[in-house]
Design brief:
By secondary structure, the chain is mainly alpha-helical. The protein is built from 13 helices and seven strands. The strands form three sheets. It has a three-stranded mixed beta sheet with strand order 2-4-3, sandwiched between helices. Strands 1-5 form a two-stranded antiparallel ribbon. Helix 3 packs across helix 8, helix 6 packs across helix 10 and helix 10 runs antiparallel to helix 12. The longest helix is centred in the N-terminal third of the chain and has 22 residues. The chain is globular, with a radius of gyration of 24 Å. The termini are far apart.
Length: 305
Amino acid sequence: MNLRTIALLILLAGGSLLVFALTKAEIRLPFESTLAPAFQILGKPIKRVDRALTRVLPIDEVDEARYGEAIALRYESFNGGTEADQAYVQSLIETVAAGTQKGFRYRAFIVETRSPNAFALPGGVVVVTSGLLETLKSESELVAVLAHEVGHVELSHCIDAVRLEIAAKKIGAAPLGEIADFAMNLMMRHSYSKTQENEADEYAWAYIKSSSYAPTGLGRSFRRLRTYYDPNRSDNETQRAPHPVSEYFQSHPHLEFREDKYLERAKAWRKAHPDEERCVGTALLVARTPLNTVTHDPSQWSTED
């Protein structure tokens, strides 16, 4: 056997070992969630990638505000809904978030899906489905849902969940866009604890009481959503393939209990304030016109919610 043959055999053996090692190795990216999955979940294509999102940062240097900026850059490329829907919800979220302690620039984005839902992301990003705008029947109900999601952000439920998951994965550094996408994927599938949901409910209730909206908004929003997701319904609207956004919402606990709880609270509030007019805002939701942009319309205000 000449030297050339021996060298060839050594190379073949080395190559075989390399192939074996690669097939057995479990290759892991810094995050299991890459850019594509979050957008595929929502059924949206990637239109552009902002250069700021490619910057690699140590995880411990990424504060919540930066998460919000990165996530907003992601959503800006495929924000759904009509311009009227987008402007309407953005105006409402700015009103709800005015004066919040964290001081984020809150941004709302619309996702086109018939499943009614809203969910919060770190840094003041709130995602609302087009189905939610169709399912709710008044601006007071929509504002209550938005206040609930703002509560999750202001009470640090979102960022705590992301940081806990990142710590568990022992990630040192990653591109900012990848960090943002990881947070998006996590929160789309995340189920808050019962305690956290209760805290966000209480946050929303406190906001509604201090606002000009009818206190029945929170309880009625739970009623609309419970009715929509009622497993006993058999109409064509509810017979659809599962969707991650709807599955997320169905993980929210005890809708009927929460509905009853806050409708009873609204009743008690009304008993204590029999002459105080509040806005239900049925026509405002239909017209996509925020309360704070219109002159006083007696038809939208009532002492009977």
